[in-house]
Amino acid sequence: MEGVLPLFKPKGMTSHDCVFRLRKILKMKRIGHTGTLDPDVTGVLPICLGRATKVAEYITDAGKAYEGEVTLGFSTTTEDSSGDIVEQKKVSESFTREQLLSVLAKLTGEILQTPPMYSAVKVNGKRLYEYARQGIEVERPTRKVMIHSIELLDERNTFSGDPIRFRFRVSCGKGTYIRTLAVMIGQELGLPAHMSDLVRIQSAAFNLEDCLSFDEIEKKVEDESILQAIYPLETALSHLPKYRINDTVAKKVKNGAVLDIPDHLLTIKGPIVLETADCLAIAIYEHHPQKEGLMKPVKVLRNDSQV
């Protein structure tokens, strides 16, 4: 059993909890998730099985999309609804649709984010949430993240009340904290804010409609149809550039050969998937750091007997 099983992560479980439960359901150990989803967040969590665990990082690094809710009026320790209130301000003014759209446009593109204290980012070898649980505030690294698009999902022309809530959809790159984005939206509007709801609707090539719940997975294991729900590891790499090779080159690749970069991939930065004539991914290559015009293997995915 190998490939990618898209799981609908329920609320209240960590990504590690999901892996632990699936190991029991599927009766296999070689399982890995593709990036941490907070316990309060639901939605798409691709699970890698068997050899597909080798490509988990490429799903983690791919684009994500979320639908969530911002609440204006108070902020929390965790930047979501699970934390304690740290700042509260009566919302006495209303906002027009144009004002909200202007803020969302300002936060689209490459922006700077400081990760929340309750996050898995490491500082001095220790995760931020470990400091937070001890009541220790440490300096956090500000970093660039990419917001591809933000869409307002609320049709109102005027937003008022105490608090004010509205829903949004965001498409973003690696390392983006949607919790922090919700706080930033509030800051632009002059109010404390937090993310009051969030569901991940897409991760790399996988969408909500591809996902199965734990109950559905258990039923498929019982009726022996689970293999039909598992996607090949090639699906997990579908967003990456490809280089199709012949059998002779494939044998060299299996032995870790350094290859010339084909002309159409010379400007590509990042991983390149080497695939056989029948579209089987056999290795991940990257530009050689010292030898211009050459690329070297990062991971070999299949050996000779599997190609």
From TrEMBL:
Occurrences of domain tRNA pseudouridylate synthase B C-terminal (ranges): 179-237
InterPro entries: PsdUridine_synth_cat_dom_sf, PsdUridine_synth_N, tRNA_psdUridine_synth_TruB, TruB_C
GO MF annotation list: tRNA pseudouridine(55) synthase activity
EC assignment: 5.4.99.25
Pseudouridine synthase II N-terminal domain residues: 23-178
UniProt keyword terms in alphabetical order: Isomerase, tRNA processing
Residues at the catalytic site: 38 (nucleophile)
Record field: catalytic activity: uridine(55) in tRNA = pseudouridine(55) in tRNA
Keyword presence, Transferase: no
Function statement: Responsible for synthesis of pseudouridine from uracil-55 in the psi GC loop of transfer RNAs.
Family: Belongs to the pseudouridine synthase TruB family. Type 1 subfamily.
Classification via NCBIfam families: TruB
Protein name as catalogued: tRNA pseudouridine synthase B
Organism of provenance: Cytobacillus mangrovibacter
Gene name of the encoded protein: truB
